[in-house]
């Protein structure tokens, strides 16, 4: 079209390890979108991570937060190494970033592509700000032994936010499969499954369940003709997800269950190297591959860039550009099916080979 292209300013935060290989891959793909998509990009580098902490004593510099808030519409975050034993003064920069930018939802789509994948087309929508992850822990002594405890906090407002995010995604999935029924095995109404353990935790998970239900009930009748609400206790959810993932559509869960379910679900489809996510708030989105910094393969040119490339597409979706996002997903899937893949998926192509192949398919 002849319309003036819209320019998006995107922060790039490689972080540690293979973050330095996969973030440039994501950037390259965005830059290679055809002109007809009407998007232009400006990229700005931002620091964060364990290496940065070792050099400067700060894991997430204030400049990074300010830069993102002031100048960018979205960002791509690579990975940060997380030391398994506590390092004084260090805490995860992505957790801090989620808080600072009010990214209250973590959205992780899991969709089968390869013949070896389990038939799956689901999205896990995980609450990102509270539950056990408020990190209010203490240790004390009772009768000569140490006892440790942690606060599990669930609030009405955070639960409303996450419920409405799940409903918005469910509606959008309903509409997109109406437009393209061949794109998925799912048919008819979208289903949101709320996952909890309210049979045991009647107050915390009980509140989560109740608020999701009442938010659902207040939607319009048009919405109710397109989206259905179901529920599943988290332990049987795990069982069912592995037995028959094809029956799930949108899953909404408090922070901890969502964390566990989403890493588990990644096992249904190939490798950690292909699973993408986004941290989403009302005014910002950060695309983030699910994997870590993979120190064992860092610097060797064999990191799988697909998770980051898909995260870039998911970021575009949340920024309101589903068309270029769909173009990226399609090119990625074609490359996977053609076997142009890195060693984690059994191939012997390099990161750069995979990126170039996807660029040529765009
Ligand atoms: P971190 O401390 O950053 O979490 P980690 O080693 O605990 O690092 P991951 O980085 O998630 O965790 O790696 C787990 C395994 O999966 C490693 O063997 C790694 O090489 C592999 N892996 C992760 N991401 C990729 C990728 N993008 N491409 C190829 N292999 C990957
Ligand atoms: Mg890890």
UniProtKB/TrEMBL annotation:
One GO MF term attached to the UniProt entry: isocitrate dehydrogenase (NAD+) activity
Protein's UniProt keywords contain Disulfide bond: no
SMART domains: Iso_dh
Entry's Gene Ontology cellular component terms: mitochondrion
Top-level lineage group: Eukaryota
Domain Isopropylmalate dehydrogenase-like: 9-358
SUPFAM superfamilies in UniProt: Isocitrate/Isopropylmalate dehydrogenase-like
Keywords linked to the UniProt accession: Magnesium, Metal-binding
Coiled coil spans: none
GO biological process, one term: isocitrate metabolic process
InterPro entries assigned to the protein according to its UniProt record, in alphabetical order: IsoCit/isopropylmalate_DH_CS, IsoPropMal-DH-like_dom
Pfam families listed in its UniProt record: Iso_dh
Family: Belongs to the isocitrate and isopropylmalate dehydrogenases family.
PANTHER family cross-referenced by the UniProt entry: DECARBOXYLATING DEHYDROGENASES-ISOCITRATE, ISOPROPYLMALATE, TARTRATE (PTHR11835), HOMOISOCITRATE DEHYDROGENASE, MITOCHONDRIAL (PTHR11835:SF48)
Name the UniProt record assigns to this protein: Homoisocitrate dehydrogenase
């Amino acid at each position: 079209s002849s319309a003036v292209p819209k320019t998006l300013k995107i922060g790039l935060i490689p972080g540690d390890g293979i973050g330095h290989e996969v973030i440039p891959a994501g950037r390259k793909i965005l830059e290679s979108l055809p002109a007809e998509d009407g998007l232009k990009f400006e990229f700005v580098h931002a620091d964060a991570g364990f290496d940065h902490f070792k050099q400067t004593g700060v894991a997430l510099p204030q400049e990074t937060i300010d830069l993102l808030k002031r100048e960018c519409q979205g960002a791509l975050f690579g990975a940060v190494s997380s030391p398994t034993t506590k390092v004084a003064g260090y805490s995860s920069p992505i957790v801090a970033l989620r808080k600072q930018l009010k990214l209250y939802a973590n959205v992780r789509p899991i969709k089968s592509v390869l013949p070896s994948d389990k038939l799956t087309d689901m999205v896990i929508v995980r609450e990102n700000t509270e539950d056990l992850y408020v990190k209010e822990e203490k240790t004390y002594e009772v009768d000569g032994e140490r006892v440790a405890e942690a606060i599990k906090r669930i609030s009405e407002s955070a639960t409303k936010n996450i419920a409405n995010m799940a409903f918005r995604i469910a509606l959008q999935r309903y509409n997109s499969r109406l437009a393209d029924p061949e794109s998925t095995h799912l048919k008819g109404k979208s289903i949101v499954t709320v996952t909890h353990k309210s049979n045991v935790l009647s107050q915390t998970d009980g509140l989560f369940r109740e608020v999701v239900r009442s938010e659902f009930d207040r939607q319009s009748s048009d919405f109710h003709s397109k989206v259905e609400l179901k529920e599943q206790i988290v332990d049987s959810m795990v069982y069912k997800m592995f037995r028959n993932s094809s029956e799930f559509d949108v899953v909404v869960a408090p922070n901890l269950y969502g964390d566990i379910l989403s890493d588990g679900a990644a096992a249904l489809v190939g490798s950690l190297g292909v699973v993408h996510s986004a941290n989403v708030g009302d005014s910002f989105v950060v695309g983030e591959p699910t994997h870590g910094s993979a120190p064992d393969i860092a610097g060797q040119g064999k990191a799988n860039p697909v998770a980051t490339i898909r995260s870039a597409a998911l970021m575009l979706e949340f920024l309101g550009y589903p068309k270029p996002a769909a173009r990226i997903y399609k090119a990625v899937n074609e490359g996977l099916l053609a076997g142009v893949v890195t060693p984690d998926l059994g191939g012997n192509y390099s990161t750069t080979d995979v990126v170039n192949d996807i660029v040529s398919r765009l």
